[in-house]
Design brief:
With 372 residues, the protein is α+β, with helices and mostly antiparallel strands. It is 27% helix and 25% strand. An eight-stranded mixed sheet has the order 6-7-5-15-16-17-14-20. It has a six-stranded mixed sheet with strand order 9-2-1-13-22-21. β10 and β11 form a beta hairpin. The chain is globular, with a radius of gyration of 21 Å.
C-alpha cells in the first residue's frame, strides 16, 4: 500500500493540511472539483475570533487557531491580508452585548465595554453617529483574506513537490477489501491509489462521504461575501453590527456579509447563484453609513455558495471509524481553524497518534450505524 495521502478539496483546510504533510516529507496528491480556487474560502468574512458562545473545547481550539495566525503575521509583518486590529460588536439589544461581554470575561477573552466617544477614538474609520451608547471591543480579534493566504500555501505546496489534479469533479473515496480507504476516484473514473485520504470539500464533504455509505449530519446554508471597489475608508477593525459585518480587504477595499438578505439569494437551475441588485445597493449603502465621512461604497464583486456547517454546529475533524484511513475535515469556522486544523490532522496522519485537541470533534460522535 502506498504512503501517499490524497486530499479532496483545494480550500484553505485542504491546502493547509497538504502543506503540513509536505513539511513532514509525506507524498501528497491534492484533487480539486474544478479549477483550483477558494470555494467556500472565497465566501468567508474570515473574522478571526473566539468570542462566541462556544464550549470550552471549541474555545480552546479556536484560540489555538488564532495563535497560528499571529505566528504567521510575525513571520510576514508587512502582509496586507492579515491583521489583528480588534473587533467591534453591538446589537439592537443592549443586554445581549452585556451578556456577551460577561461571558467573554469569564473565559479570559479580552473584552472591553466602551462608551460611544471612546469607541470612535479606539476604532478609526467608523462614524460615531451610528454607535449606541455602549459597544463591545475585542482588541485581540483580527481578519485574514483567505484567497491571499491560499496563494501563499499553494506556492509552498508546489515548491515542496505536491501533485495537483484539477477538474476532478465530485470525487469518491475508494475502499479496499479490508474496509480501509485505499484511494480516490474522479468523476471520469480515474483512480489514484493512496494509503490515506482527507476529505476537505467544504459543503460538499457530506456528499462525498455519502458515496462511501456514511451519512454526515449537514446544516450547510447559503452565504454571500461582497467586496467593494477601492475607496479611502480608514477602517482597520472588524465591525459586527445588527445590519452588516464589514472588515478591511486588500487593495483599499471592504469585505462585507450578513444574514438578512440570504432569503433573497437564489440558486439557479444551472448551479449558479443570483443576488438581486437591490441587495447589493442596500449593503453598499449600509457600509457607507457606518464609515466616517459616509463615503460612497460601490460593490465590485460578490461570491455566493453554500457555507459548510455540520449538523450540530461543531467541527468534524478526524479519522472515520467507519472508514479507517479516511479523515473528515468539515467545519463552519474554516477561517479561524484554517491553519490549526490542517496542522493537527496532518500530525495525526504522520505520527499515527490521535491528538487530544481533536477528541471532542471526531466524526465518531455521530451514529453512523457501525458496530462497536
Amino acid at each position: 500500500m502506498t504512503d501517499r495521502t490524497a486530499i479532496l478539496g483545494g480550500g484553505v483546510l485542504g491546502l493547509s493540511t497538504a502543506v503540513e504533510l509536505l513539511r513532514g516529507r509525506a507524498e501528497v496528491l491534492l484533487l480539486t472539483e474544478a479549477k483550483a480556487s477558494g470555494g467556500a474560502s472565497e465566501r468567508s468574512l474570515s473574522w478571526l475570533n473566539a468570542g462566541g458562545a462556544y464550549g470550552e473545547q471549541y474555545f480552546r481550539l479556536r484560540m489555538a487557531g488564532i495563535d497560528r495566525y499571529r505566528s504567521l503575521l510575525a513571520r510576514r509583518p508587512g502582509a496586507d491580508w492579515l491583521a489583528f486590529d480588534g473587533g467591534l460588536y453591538w446589537d439592537d439589544d443592549p443586554f445581549e452585548v452585556i451578556e456577551r461581554h460577561n461571558r467573554q470575561t469569564r473565559d479570559g477573552y479580552e473584552a472591553r465595554m466602551l462608551e460611544r466617544g471612546d469607541a470612535a477614538a479606539r476604532v478609526p474609520g467608523i462614524d460615531p453617529g451610528v454607535l449606541p451608547h455602549r459597544v463591545l471591543f475585542n482588541p485581540g480579534e483580527g481578519w485574514v483574506a483567505l484567497p491571499q493566504l491560499m496563494r501563499l500555501l499553494a506556492e509552498e505546496f508546489t515548491a515542496r513537490g505536491g501533485t495537483l489534479v484539477e477538474d476532478a469533479g465530485l470525487c469518491s473515496v475508494v475502499a479496499g477489501e479490508d474496509g480501509r480507504a485505499s484511494g480516490v476516484r474522479t468523476t471520469d473514473g480515474d483512480e489514484y491509489e493512496a494509503g490515506t485520504v482527507v476529505v476537505a470539500c467544504g459543503a460538499g464533504t457530506p456528499a462525498v462521504l455519502a458515496g462511501a455509505g456514511i451519512v454526515l449530519p449537514d446544516a450547510s446554508d447559503p452565504a454571500v461575501l461582497l467586496v467593494s471597489e477601492p475607496l479611502h475608508h480608514g477602517l482597520r477593525a472588524v465591525l459586527n453590527t445588527p445590519r452588516l459585518s464589514v472588515r478591511p480587504h486588500p487593495g483599499s477595499r471592504l469585505a462585507m456579509d450578513h444574514t438578512w438578505y440570504l432569503d433573497l439569494v437564489h440558486r439557479r437551475e444551472d448551479g449558479s447563484w443570483d443576488v438581486p441588485a437591490d441587495v447589493l445597493e442596500d449593503v453598499a449603502a449600509e457600509a457607507g453609513r457606518l464609515l466616517a465621512g459616509n463615503p460612497e461604497v460601490r460593490i465590485k464583486s460578490w461570491h455566493a455558495g453554500l457555507k459548510p456547517v455540520p449538523g450540530d454546529g461543531e467541527p468534524v475533524l478526524g479519522e472515520l471509524r467507519a472508514l479507517p484511513g479516511c479523515w473528515a475535515v468539515f467545519t463552519h469556522s474554516g477561517a479561524t481553524l484554517g491553519l490549526i486544523a490542517g496542522e493537527l490532522v496532518a500530525d495525526e496522519i504522520l505520527t499515527g497518534r490521535r491528538h487530544p485537541l481533536l477528541e471532542p470533534f471526531r466524526p465518531e460522535r455521530f451514529d453512523f450505524g457501525w458496530e462497536s
